[in-house]
Design goal:
The structure is a homodimer. Chain A is an alpha+beta fold. Helices cover 47% and strands 24% of the residues of chain A. In chain A, strands 2-6-4-5 form a four-stranded antiparallel β-sheet. In chain A, strands 1-7-3 form a three-stranded antiparallel β-sheet. In chain A, β9 and β10 form a beta hairpin. Chains A and B meet through α3 and α5 of A and α3 and α5 of B. The structure holds a DNA duplex.
DNA sequence: CTGCGAAGGTGACCTGGGTCACAAAAACTG
DNA sequence: CAGTTTTTGTGACCCAGGTCACCTTCGCAG
């Protein structure tokens, strides 16, 4: 079945155990899966779609951390699940999304029983930790133009398309800046032949 | 012995195992323990002193992530150790420091044998992940004055002293800004009676 | 086709904070 | 204690990027 397919590193027994005890769930595009301060009782594995993980400030600012796609899991939900503490971030379905929710206790028992699960968890931490490091690099050391370029490239990479369907406003939210700034910078990039601009779309060249 | 003392959550057997197989090491103040790009083969537990974990940019910028004190461990070294990959950060002894190095294979076997070790590792990930989140919050959403305030408070907290022995230049490095900016902001804080300034020292009020 | 809302463009202006140049203390050294 | 080094203070200036005001363009619904 699907778990097998998206998580090929899992042992057969592990796949079965998850299949038997975990809960499948669907979210439609735009739905909030988890919000700041919410109590977490399960970890999330993504089967289909895309989930956006971002941080919200008290003053309504918003800041993209990373996206989760099929075959990936939310490190934060893992950590919190184990500690059964509250989330510090918001998760939103960017597209229609299908996930498997693994409750706290199951998580524990899988951990001691299946080496491939343990390794998957470690791998997940590692990847997300790295991702956070690169986020920090970007905001600490780079200017807006470089950050925008990085953002577009990453987006294109992860979605596999060169045509990025985002309005300037949406990009601005993700980078915690204003629409005008993004418009100006994109215009500059267009003049340098790095992108081509359309309504609600940016094409990377 | 000391491991027992600084890591009271460890089972007796675990303490013994570490005592027997891991290596004690000392670093003097200012020594680099681990640098960006270096291959990591062991995890570090801190017994004495203080270690500063920071990120370096290509252009020589520097950016503090967090400090490690007695009883704490380096999450990054754990993750990298397990993956036997390279480090993305630099670790420097801030004071004379004593650590225990736990080699990769030992790490693995402790993980499956001792529940208290497994929990310690998870706990460490959690703490550091949170710390990174708050670092991101700060640089993404806050201005320099708030960041400086946060920085000083954290420093005071962690060292347990209200007298902070740092030059303006050192603070500036940690926050990846310039000395002048820190001087100006500290002066303003002094006028607002939040701190008192001395040479090479800041006192939090 | 018209009218309206959403997206994008643009100029004017402001501010935080980075940079430069230099002065004044403070501390260390012979 | 005269000279040197380190730290701190400060004014002048600049630039990225945030803010505001307002315009244009596109696409859609009636």
């Amino acid at each position: 079945m699907t778990i097998q397919q998206y998580f090929p590193s899992f042992e057969k027994d592990l796949t079965d155990a998850i299949e038997k005890e975990a809960v499948h769930k669907s979210f439609s595009a735009g739905e909030i899966i988890m919000r700041t301060g919410q109590y977490i009782k399960s970890t999330i594995l993504v089967l289909q779609g895309r989930i956006k993980i971002y941080r919200e400030s008290d003053e309504g600012g918003e800041f993209l951390m990373y996206y989760l796609g099929p075959g990936e899991a939310c490190a934060i939900s893992m950590i919190c699940a184990i500690q059964s503490s509250t989330s510090e971030v918001t998760a939103k379905a960017e597209e229609d999304t299908e996930v498997v929710m693994i409750p706290l206790q199951l998580m524990e028992s899988l951990m001691s029983k299946y080496k491939s699960w343990y390794q998957f968890v470690i791998q997940t931490y590692r990847t997300r930790f790295d991702e956070l490091l690169s986020v920090i690099d970007n905001i600490a050391f780079r200017n807006m133009d470089e950050r925008l370029e990085f953002y577009l490239k990453r987006y294109a990479n992860e979605s596999g398309k060169k045509l990025i369907s985002l309005s300037h406003q949406e990009i601005a939210y993700d980078l915690n800046t204003s629409r005008e700034v993004i418009s100006r910078l994109l215009k500059k990039m267009e003049q340098r032949n790095m992108v081509k601009l359309y309504r609600n779309m940016v094409e990377l060249l």
